[in-house]
């Protein structure tokens, strides 16, 4: 039985990845940071809460990260833990830098010293492209991060490349574009919109305040994207891969799809509020997943319309029960 360690197992991707690895017969360990309230709800939603070995730890605490690596004796480590909300990274730039940046080194060092055969996946991000330097971004596009989050993740990305080249570790980096699901955090724009559309439809909310709805994103489904993570660690050679759909859409159009699904016109409810604009915006992202398709045999299975409908259906049911 293979052993895997997932950091960030209580997050959206952690829950989908845990399900995938358990289905493949792995023993799954999860690094979980101490919180004062329950953080395992996604694992319950996925029906995997009881099947995971939980290890206490925090990415900012090198000792706990090291202990988790030793205790789990992992064949594969998936580093998904992060302060992942871009907007919050301007308010907590140092924490974001420590957790999303230096935390990666804590993990790579533990692997280098105590488990050098372990294969490592780093959750890199399209936010590293920021102010885009090419119309469609691939593995060779120069980076230009536009937030403390993007900057911290760029450190995490390069330290992964550096440990691969310096110590011959099987360390791969997935440069994933936005991916969503019914388990997405409520602060991200897709869930904010589907939750609000459901509430408005059911008379529990009157309007929805958003920021820059002209921003464009390449949105995919988290369930598809965790398969790409796993595939990266099954390759003979570690490498970097862009994971995206190759289609970009405005926030405005995404709102239209969500509200349409419940028979509403988004224009009647969406208000623009300057509070949701960012100090620096990433206006447009569009990924080129050709290498992932060619090398990993990976393709996205879910288009945006299907994804938003899936999220709307889940939010309509959840809001009705409240
Ligand atoms: P998420 O839902 O925000 O989950 C983040 C996870 O990290 C949670 O389990 C969280 O624990 C954990 N965490 C936060 N700070 C920690 C710390 N100091 N020590 C240990 N764990 C900590 O994020 P996601 O959407 O699943 O994304 C997974 C990873 O992919 C992240 O690294 C993110 O930056 C990256 N990424 C995401 C996307 C996307 O579109 N979703 C795209 C590209 C890259 P709590 O639950 O206790 O807070
Ligand atoms: O914003 C605009 C906002 O917060 C998307 C993270 O998973 O993907 C995610 O980062 C766009 C931005 O995601 C609101 O300005 C307008 O242009 O859903 P988001 P994000 O910032 O793209 C990347 C790949 C990651 O790596 C991150 O971890 O939508 N927008 N109005 C809004 N965004 C939010 N959140 N709220 C609004 O009211």
UniProtKB/TrEMBL annotation:
GO terms for biological process: 'de novo' GDP-L-fucose biosynthetic process. GO terms for molecular function: GDP-mannose 4,6-dehydratase activity; NADP+ binding. InterPro entries: GDP_Man_deHydtase, NAD(P)-bd_dom, NAD(P)-bd_dom_sf. Keywords: Lyase, NADP. Its EC number is 4.2.1.47. It is an enzyme of class 4 (lyase). Pfam families: GDP_Man_Dehyd (PF16363). SUPFAM superfamilies: NAD(P)-binding Rossmann-fold domains. Its cofactor is NADP(+). Residues 5-311 form the NAD(P)-binding domain. It catalyses: GDP-alpha-D-mannose = GDP-4-dehydro-alpha-D-rhamnose + H2O. NCBIfam families: gmd (TIGR01472). Belongs to the NAD(P)-dependent epimerase/dehydratase family. GDP-mannose 4,6-dehydratase subfamily. Catalyzes the conversion of GDP-D-mannose to GDP-4-dehydro-6-deoxy-D-mannose. This is GDP-mannose 4,6-dehydratase. It comes from Pseudomonas koreensis.
């Amino acid at each position: 039985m293979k052993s895997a360690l997932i950091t960030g197992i209580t997050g959206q991707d952690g829950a989908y990845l845990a399900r995938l690895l358990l289905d493949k017969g792995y023993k799954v360990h999860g690094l979980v940071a101490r919180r004062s309230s329950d953080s395992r709800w996604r694992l319950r939603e996925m029906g995997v809460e009881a099947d995971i070995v939980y290890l206490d730890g925090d990415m900012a605490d090198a000792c706990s990260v090291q202990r988790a690596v030793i205790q789990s004796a992992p064949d594969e480590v998936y580093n998904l833990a992060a302060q992942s909300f871009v907007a919050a990274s301007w308010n907590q730039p140092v924490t974001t830098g420590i957790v999303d940046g230096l935390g990666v080194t804590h993990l790579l060092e533990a692997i280098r010293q105590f488990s050098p055969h372990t294969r490592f996946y780093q959750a890199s991000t399209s936010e590293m492209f920021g102010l885009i330097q090419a119309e469609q971004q691939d593995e060779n596009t120069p980076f230009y991060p536009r937030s403390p989050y993007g900057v911290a993740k760029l450190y995490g990305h390069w330290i992964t490349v550096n440990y691969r080249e310096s110590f011959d570790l099987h360390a791969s980096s997935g440069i994933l574009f936005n991916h969503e699901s019914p388990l997405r955090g409520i602060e991200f724009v897709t869930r904010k919109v589907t939750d609000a559309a459901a509430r408005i439809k059911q008379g529990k909310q009157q309007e929805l305040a958003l920021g820059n709805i002209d921003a464009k994103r390449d949105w995919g489904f988290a369930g598809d994207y965790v398969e790409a993570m796993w595939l990266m660690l099954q390759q003979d050679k570690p490498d970097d891969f862009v994971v995206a759909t190759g289609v970009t859409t405005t926030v405005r159009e995404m709102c239209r799809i969500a509200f349409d699904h419940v028979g509403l016109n988004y224009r009647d409810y969406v208000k623009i509020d300057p509070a949701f604009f960012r100090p620096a915006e990433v206006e447009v992202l569009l990924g080129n997943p050709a290498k992932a398709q060619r090398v990993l045999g990976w393709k996205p299975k879910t288009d945006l319309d299907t994804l938003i409908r899936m999220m709307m259906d889940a939010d309509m049911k959840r809001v009705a029960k409240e």
